[in-house]
Write a structure and sequence with these properties.
Chain lengths: ~110, ~110
């Protein structure tokens, strides 16, 4: 079974802090994704990566950046956290691009920015 | 927005009854996938139906797809309390586009 591990289940950060959310997958998947999930808005794609050192913007990249230095690790960075970035963040990986295989999700990181 | 929508937003049924959730999407698709999310957890993949398929079964799950109407439905038969969760559809083209989810409560 694919395992996607997010480093923290809960995080509390202050406005203006730089925040790192880490995600590791163990199935050698090329593709990795970061979503945020908010009530009534569903899942929205922040960034995705289809190869090491490659990244593509999703629907809501503003205020975020990502890093993929190794195939198994995809990091989401909040350069200067703001209260409107309080959310559930979900990392996922997949074998194939364009939805031809399932997404495998981590358990999520619930981030609160105060 | 490219996101789809699930209907209803919330559904409450008795154990043993069937639960039907509907999904509408906006773009042409490669396939459509359904996911389940238990409270506070990540999503788990349930079933994938390709754009050239009309119906697919997996255990107690039955999924239909109507590409002319850009819609899909998920039927869970003989529901159990453990089926209580949120269910999301995801249409896939260049990306995964998730709906807003249906919250299902199965009452024992």
């Amino acid at each position: 079974d694919v395992k996607v591990t997010q480093s923290s289940r809960y995080l509390v950060k202050r406005t203006g802090e730089k925040v790192f959310l880490e995600c590791v997958q163990d199935m050698d998947h090329e593709n990795m994704f970061w979503y945020r999930q908010d009530p009534g808005l569903g899942l929205r794609l922040i960034y995705f990566s289809y190869d090491v050192k490659m990244k593509e913007k999703g629907d809501i990249p503003e205020g975020y950046s990502v890093s993929r230095e190794k195939k198994e690790r995809f990091s989401l960075i909040l350069e200067s956290a703001s209260t409107n970035q309080t959310s559930m963040y979900l990392c996922a990986s997949s074998l194939e691009i364009k939805g031809n295989s399932p997404l495998h999700f981590g358990n999520g990181t619930r981030l609160t920015v105060t | 927005s490219q996101q789809g929508e699930e209907d209803p937003q919330a559904l409450s049924i008795q154990e043993g009854e069937n639960a039907t959730m509907n999904c509408s999407y906006k773009t042409s698709i490669n396939n459509l996938q359904w996911y389940r999310q238990n409270s506070g957890r990540g999503l788990v993949h349930l079933i994938l139906i390709r754009s050239n398929e009309r119906e697919k079964h997996s255990g107690r799950l039955r999924v239909t797809l109507d590409t002319s109407k850009k819609s899909s439905s998920l039927l869970i038969t003989a529901s159990r309390a453990a089926d209580t969760a949120s269910y999301f559809c995801a249409s896939t083209g260049n990306q995964f586009y998730f709906g807003t989810g249906t919250s299902l409560t199965v009452i024992p």
